[in-house]
Amino acid sequence: MNALLIYSGGMDSTTLLYQYQQDIRLAVSFHYGSKHNDREISYAEMNCKKLGIEYLTIHLDFINHYFKSSLLQSGGDIPEGHYADENMKQTIVPFRNGIMLSIAVGLAESRDLDAVLLGNHFGDHAIYPDCRRSFIDAFADAAREGTVKGVQVISPYCDISKRDIALIGQSLHVDFAATYSCYKGGEKHCGKCGTCVERKEALEGFDPTVYEA
Amino acid sequence: MNALLIYSGGMDSTTLLYQYQQDIRLAVSFHYGSKHNDREISYAEMNCKKLGIEYLTIHLDFINHYFKSSLLQSGGDIPEGHYADENMKQTIVPFRNGIMLSIAVGLAESRDLDAVLLGNHFGDHAIYPDCRRSFIDAFADAAREGTVKGVQVISPYCDISKRDIALIGQSLHVDFAATYSCYKGGEKHCGKCGTCVERKEALEGFDPTVYEA
After folding, report:
1. What is the pLDDT of residues B70-113, one digit of tens each?
2. How far is CA A77 from CA A60, A162, A185, B112, in A?
3. Which domain holds residue B21?
4. What total of structural domains would you count in chain B?
5. Chain B residues close to A68, C-beta within 8 Å
6. CATH number of the domain where residue A176 is located
7. What ipTM describes this predicted complex?
């Protein structure tokens, strides 16, 4: 397989980067103006350099300009609490995965690559509609039908938990200290926002993260 | 219905603008670096102003930077001949409709709109996979599943010809002189590229276009 990885620099897509490193010809980060984009992306670039994988960042300024979400620099404060809580819905960036996948599919077709890899997982489903199996399957059909080559969309972690991903990563010797999750985007992980709470739970027993709290 | 129109400034989407003007809350053009983008977009803005419809342009610079297509400023010469000819495949911008639709769906959800309108038509199918019914239907499923609101994707002209659209436009008193099609992007329509040939055939009998040839 010749694949393009949608790569945030978080622990899930970094595990994908390690797991599929033989197949990945290009890793792409999207800079869409989230509070934690810059920090995530610096880890993404670093990990690709380490594994010798071509890497690029695509800027999507229109999202921060025109979309509403507390995840964005233009949005309100990041809520604290558990990832599955109702107030985490403020952090939805509408159809973000649809947008990233579409651009990735077009770029894959331009580069004659067969597939796009996305690191969404089962724990995302409670909050984010564009992380669910029903979305991924429909989008995969659209990508196949809408390209000359029939580009595939592959979501290897769609039906497993973040804990499962952490265990896969551990077995692959992923350096989780070189990944970033916190929605607040500070130098250290805050340890309190939904995604930090989720990270802690997933990495329990082998967590190298230095949290603020 | 509260809809967002993907609006190029060509004759098909201008006919959609007129036909659904009561439902359209926002029209969006995408500037992705095609040779004819600037000229198309100036008509799009003018027509929205005339009908009192909110309008914005979203720049997608990454397409011209990273994608391969003779339609782009970064690509080779636009082929001449008939729209359905084999050499017109050079003008495919990979997954362009997927990319524009995804952004439109996210923006519609951000603005609490119900639907996205796209003006693809039956004559596009021979060349462009992301204009076919199978793509549109799969993408519509993805948009519904991937948004909280269940944003609809509506393609009213997917199963009719450009001639049929021209006749609808004529009945709605669309000013076709205030639309632009030519892939070469010159001041006058060239009259020779695939999309000019197609425009001439569609508007036969009531074509106000001044062609170069």
Report:
1. 888 888 888 887 766 777 788 889 999 999 999 999 999 999 99
2. 21, 25, 12, 21
3. 3-203
4. 1
5. 110
6. 3.40.50.620
7. 0.94
